[in-house]
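I need you to check the entry underneath: sequence plus fold tokens. Let me know what the token row says about the fold.

>
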Amino acid sequence: MNTSSWLVKAATVFSVVGHPLCLSFCITAFLAWKYLPAGQAVWVCGLLAGGVVVPVYWHTHRLTKRGTYTNADVSNRQERYRLYPRVIGLLTFVTIALFATNQSRVLCLGMLSALLLVICAYGVNFFNKVSLHTSVALFMAWVVWSSNKPVGMAAIALALLIAASRLVLQRHTWSEVILGMALGTLTGALFYGLAGW
């Protein structure tokens, strides 16, 4: 196997693992099961899966199959205009549901910060595409860091590998990845500050 094909295969694995829907759900579910009572963790995971992950996946899959979206990552900046409002609406619904049901302050602030990240990415998308893989990976690294510093360091390393994968696969330019890094870092730091760590 030559180096370039190995690199592309490794980048593909990191890109799949780092898909914003997959990564954010897996980390949130892990932390919910670690810190919340079982019934509450089930409710939070169900809300996140049913309120955001499944509807967004179904939407992107359906429109990719129809040819409306170029690929399941919705890598085309123009195509993202249709996706962002849907994601913002769903995240708003889930955020309101978490606040309305008096879920943990940290969970509510985390969802509010994630919503802010997507709103900012939508605004930036009018000028330049943001690597959502990178921004969500770095945001989630902050979330993990706030819970466990050593594991947070591993999450930061994973986020950097995810960012590199987007460059190797040529889904993003350097400027798009750097924008994603900045957005993920800023919203992650905001969450960290609001949560009181």
Remarks:
- The helical segments are 3-17, 20-35, 38-66, 77-100, 105-124, 132-147, 149-168, 174-194.
- Residues 38-66 form the longest helix (29 residues).
